[in-house]
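Z., the sequence and structure:
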Amino acid sequence: MTEGYDVIAKVYDKLNADIDYIAWADFIEKTFERFLKKKPELVLDLACGTGSMTVELARRGYDMIGVDGSEQMLSIASERAYVNFGEENEYRLPILYLLQDMRSFELYGTVGAVVSCLDSINYLTGEGDLGKCFLSVHNYLDPNGIFVFDINTPYKFENIYADNAYILEDDIDGASVYCGWQNFFDDKSGICDFYLTLFSENEDGSYTREEECQHERRYTMEEVKEALKKCGFEFLAAYSDYNFTAAEDKDKRWYIVARAIK
């Protein structure tokens, strides 16, 4: 059993096949328009994973930096940055990928906006991790730059994750892949452990078994607001969806916007 995201990297996009990155990117751009005086030129995608959002924003003209703590995730993201216009014409989108910890990353300068998608913030499970991440984000944001991120809600941890199990079976590059996902949620600590078992088909028809454990932490809206305030942010809004609907207790995901005050 390994810790981290190396095993799951190969099936990450399959697990999130229902995510509409175009609609999500539309929401992010509308958020920029709503809360910034001008369009940010340089944007950081924090905990960028396999780079789906990083690439989508780069296609829209933003200079992008992608930071992630998994070498395997970044390897896939780097390949995704290449755009083909026929066999003889290949173009790489202007994306700088950095292998760094989201709690203590370092950039070469400040950025106009930071985005973090797909509940990456919930992966900050240690005491003080949320504050460390927010401080690093604040440090590298331009004055009045904004931080747009989402979190899985307490409702999702308590009612959907809980102690449930899920199964994924699919083909990747012509080979069968089977993934078993078992959750164990501790209401007292607020930590949910995800035990993943992955069976990948080999060329000879046999299967390789790999196991990985991930962890997410439940954060209340009050905890997020308090951490943002302590780290120099002004809390601007929390939404339920891409239509800017006000956040509610029974949402599965909250989209949060904060401004760096300097």
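The domain at 156-217 is CATH 2.20.25.110 (N-terminal domain of TfIIb). The helical segments are 12-15, 21-35, 52-59, 71-80, 129-139, 154-161, 221-230.

Let me know what you think.
H.
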